[in-house]
From TrEMBL:
Protein name, as recorded: Protoporphyrinogen IX oxidase
Matching InterPro entries: HemJ-like
Organism of this sequence: Mesorhizobium shonense
Pfam family, one: UPF0093
Membrane topology annotation: Multi-pass membrane protein
E.C. number(s) listed in UniProt: 1.3.99.-
Pathway annotation from the record: Porphyrin-containing compound metabolism; protoporphyrin-IX biosynthesis; protoporphyrin-IX from protoporphyrinogen-IX: step 1/1
Subunit annotation: Homodimer.
Cofactor(s) named in the record: heme b
Similarity comment: Belongs to the HemJ family.
TM segment ranges: 17-34, 46-67, 88-109, 115-136, 157-175
Keywords: Cell membrane, Heme, Iron, Membrane, Metal-binding, Oxidoreductase, Transmembrane, Transmembrane helix
Protein task: Catalyzes the oxidation of protoporphyrinogen IX to protoporphyrin IX.
Cofactor annotation remark: Binds 1 heme b (iron(II)-protoporphyrin IX) group per subunit.
Amino acid sequence: MIDASNENSAGQAMKRMTIGIVVLVVLTALLYFAAPDSFYPWAKAIHVIAVISWMAGMLYLPRLFVYHVEAEKGSVQSETFKVMERRLLRAIINPAMIVTWVFGLWLAWKGFGFQGGWLHAKILAVLLLSGLHGYLAGAVRKFAEDRNEKPARHWRIVNEIPTLLMIVIVILVIVKPF
């Protein structure tokens, strides 16, 4: 069972995360309006930081599921995994994905005018990663309700998908093969 102190600390974590996002938005807007000519490299930096955060969460969450499957339903371990999964999704993965998309689309428009086969392929790969994100978010809900029916092997395989997509995306961005 999750006690009131865990719920309170979760509420505090969400509050801190919201404040952090608001601060990021305000500082980004100030930077954009104060120095629009030098905003592009800052946008790139924020985009890369968000991508790293998103990928870290996307690589860690399925690994948590592998361990969660092995915990007995209703046990202290299972309840701990539920809290960890929910916080990881809400406090790191979701905001990082949003920031990644917002800055990524702005960079694609400003830097490339949405032109280039490599860019279209990259956007497709990021859409696939976003679809996986949605699948994992659904799994967090199922685990929270003790309704997961997937074995640990499934989550081990799913754990490899973000890595493969990341490799494709990095090659497309750096090499620009077409």
